[in-house]
Design a protein that fits this description.
By secondary structure, the protein is an alpha/beta fold. The protein is built from 8 helices and 10 strands.
């Protein structure tokens, strides 16, 4: 069983390495589903644990214009230059199908890297057809919640993905997976890869300055990182 930590920055990556995660997906802003990390984060986090970097230039849908695709291609080149093993990408067209031309451009920008397709698979019209296309394009991993809000709710589809495609591509269950449900998800789907963030609010959030958790403007002063104890417990469960 292989555990990929969804890590929202440097401290999460460090905790993942110490806690026994096999690998990581590095991103920022999990509260909006994750976006590409800053250059400083990328530079700081390399060579700690085998890591693929999320390439997503903005929150929201996965339908990108030419400028957005170009931006993501530049980010992929940066990630490749920093020595990461791979990237996590995805794009759909205005009809809700895979945007194959955009995907090919991103893969060309990262030639030699490994590629994970992210949860755009769960938002596309024909996920089974899309899976065949991703295999033909050369993806070695797909992150999926089974086309549902969470992997637990999507168990049936994840199991179908694993049954139909698991011998040709790594099906990685993700989305709301934690210590309380991971055993059930693994047993019901047969997947060999799971993905979880296991975050907790940072204890030292300067509550003396921000007793209500916000500043004078009402902006939240709280944040979360992947929790070391939770990671250790999760690894103990799945191993």
């Amino acid at each position: 069983m292989r555990f990929e930590l969804c890590a929202n920055g440097y401290q999460s990556i460090r905790n993942g390495a110490e806690g026994g995660a096999d690998c990581a997906e590095l991103c920022e802003a999990l509260e909006v589903g994750g976006v590409t990390p800053s250059y400083g984060t990328l530079s700081r986090c390399r060579n700690i644990i085998p890591t693929r970097v999320l390439i997503r230039c903005r929150p929201g849908n996965y339908i990108y214009n030419d400028d957005e695709v170009a931006i993501m291609c530049e980010d992929i080149k940066t990630v490749k230059g920093l020595g990461y093993e791979g990237v996590v990408i995805g794009a759909l067209n205005k009809d809700g199908d895979l945007d194959v031309p955009a995907i090919k451009k991103m893969m060309a920008a990262g030639e030699g890297l490994r590629f994970t397709f992210h949860r755009a698979i769960d938002a596309c019209n024909n996920p089974l057809d899309a899976m065949e296309t991703l295999i033909s394009l050369g993806f070695d991993k797909v992150l999926t919640s089974g086309c549902k809000p969470s992997a637990y709710e999507g168990i049936d589809m994840i199991r179908e993905f694993q049954t139909l495609f698991g011998d040709r591509i790594n099906i990685m269950a993700g989305g709301g997976i934690n210590e309380t449900n991971v055993e059930r998800i693994i047993a019901a789907t047969g997947v060999k890869n799971v993905h979880a963030s296991l975050t907790s609010e940072v204890a030292d959030n300067h509550s003396d300055l921000y007793p209500n958790g916000v500043d004078n403007t009402g902006a939240s002063m709280l944040y979360k990182v992947s929790n070391l104890d939770r990671i250790k417990e999760f690894v103990k469960i799945i191993k």
